[in-house]
Amino acid sequence: MTSRETNPNFMNGVPELLILRLLNEKEMYGYELVQAIRERTDAVVAVGEGVVYPVLHGLESDGALKSRRKTVNGRSRIYYSVTARGSRRLADLSETWTNLAGAIHRMLMGGQSAEAV
Amino acid sequence: MTSRETNPNFMNGVPELLILRLLNEKEMYGYELVQAIRERTDAVVAVGEGVVYPVLHGLESDGALKSRRKTVNGRSRIYYSVTARGSRRLADLSETWTNLAGAIHRMLMGGQSAEAV
DNA sequence: CCACCATACCTTGTAATTCGATGTATTGCA
DNA sequence: TGCAATACATCGAATTACAAGGTATGGTGG
Questions:
Q1: A85 is a domain residue
Q2: What whole-number distance in Å separates Cα of residue A64 and Cα of residue B4?
Q3: For chain B, how many structural domains are there in total?
Q4: How many angstroms separate the CA of residue B96 from the nearest CA in chain A?
Q5: Chain center to CA of B97
Q6: For residue B34, what are the domain limits?
Q7: I want to staple A86 with a disulfide (CB 3.0 to 4.6 A). Which of A27, A64, B83, B104 is the partner?
């Protein structure tokens, strides 16, 4: 059980997904991610620092992210970016999410009649 | 803390949502729900009895569901159907889910460019 | 008649997440 | 000087979902 071998909660991992998605575009630091997620989702998703930092640490120790320190305006920041492994993880989570959202959407919209293929 | 007053996990409650959705069409019993969810989602969502029964009990004690016993072929079943309160809950959860899925979808699809309003 | 599988209900322990609160330290501004 | 924003971090509590197991009945095949 290095990490996520067992069947995880099929719902969770959304913060992880969003973080990977953002970092896949450009390197960012934790505090920035917290605000970016809030802004980009119009506050529909609002994860706190208590969520973001542990996820970042977990992803890094899994080799999905790499980090580098950088001091800007006397502010010490830790910038994260995705590795090849992180890219794969992002693709995986992305697909899983899309399938899940699709299935649920179909159930919510679709009537009780048998679906046409 | 009657039940869900605090800010819950923004992700959870999908089993609850699906169960309410199915029961809103016609009354069903637990065992039937387990199979219906599996079939209707092509096994993308596969909740077990250990998930369904506690949710049913919780919803009933919250007044969102009502139940009646019925014996069919010597099989004793407990059929559940949604109350007015359950209908409201379904509408709420439905909207919350739609917002959430929409926000995430936008993040997954949308590029880094500033979104046009 | 017995064994077995499907039906039908239920509970318990465990694992994984997420959340809120809190703590530290620095910078800039009033 | 004091306060807000920045930037990192961790802890405890709560919620949830899951797997596994437990009970009981009915039908079917040997």
A1: yes
A2: 35
A3: 1
A4: 9
A5: 10
A6: 14-102
A7: A64
